[in-house]
Request: fold
Amino acid sequence: MDNVYKPRVVVLTGAGVSAESGLKTFRDNNGLWENHRVEDVATPEGFAADPALVYRFYNERRAQLQQPDVQPNPAHKALAKLEQALGEQFLLVTQNVDDLHERAGNQRILHMHGKLLSARCCKTGRAIVWQDDFDDTTECRCCLPGEQMRPDIVWFGEVPMHMDDIIMALAQADVFIAIGTSGQVYPAANFVAMAADSGARTIEINLEPSQQNSLFDEHIVGRAGEVLPEFVA
Ligand code: BV8
Reply:
């Protein structure tokens, strides 16, 4: 992605932006983690211990995402409109692994926690589009037959993607907007402090105050799908 670090407006989204599309968040009632221990499904150790369980967890989420009634909601569409208006001065950093921002029309997106609809070769780390279900005979299709594939997801204890570009973008942002994230997962939870240190105006749009709420200049409480269309208008 060219000119990724020119943006004046950096937006960080979390699971709350996709909630109104029907995708479960992580920490709300009946969230994703309630049905699974994080250690079992979102760590390299969990994958090594029981790849079939981890494959099932991500197969479930991919199947949910590919349901016909799961579509970009007004929050996604408002962010696509914002990118249209700002062009290179806009950057969307998402913790989400769904493709709803892309389907709404955003292009300047960095998926810092990976993507549900791609897989990664365990040997080479190369990611390829992967729409099918994983199963325990999932074999590598990219290089070495017989090598295992894993979800193209950043698990706990793994380094998030695009960190250099994100740090550079935060260093020169004029505005940082966090939307639909509980601010409980690092390093994303640190982004508001990093943006503020660079002099950016910081805004939180969330259903309830996040763990980082006190660090923001401005707070807008509400559903992203209702607040964002007005905010962007
Ligand atoms: C790393 C897998 C080192 C993808 C996920 C301090 C510093 C650095 C690291 C740590 C640290 N302390 C602890 C750590 C380790 C750890 C961590 O943060 N642990 C936490 C639990 C304390 N972090 C890591 O391991 C990370 N790696 O640090 O490496 C490093 C660091 C920097 C540079 C180099 C090396 C890796 C973290 C990635 C883990 N992977 N998931 C997947 O399966 O999806 S995290 C998981 O949580 C998802 O990715 C999710 O996106 C993310 C954050 O959750 P949210 O998106 O915020 O969702 P949540 O449900 O929590 O909140 C939703 C919010 O929306 C709520 O506030 C709700 O009120 C609101 N909402 C709901 N509906 C709406 C709404 N808002 C608006 N409108 C609505 N309609």
User: Anything to note?
Assistant: The mean pLDDT is 90.
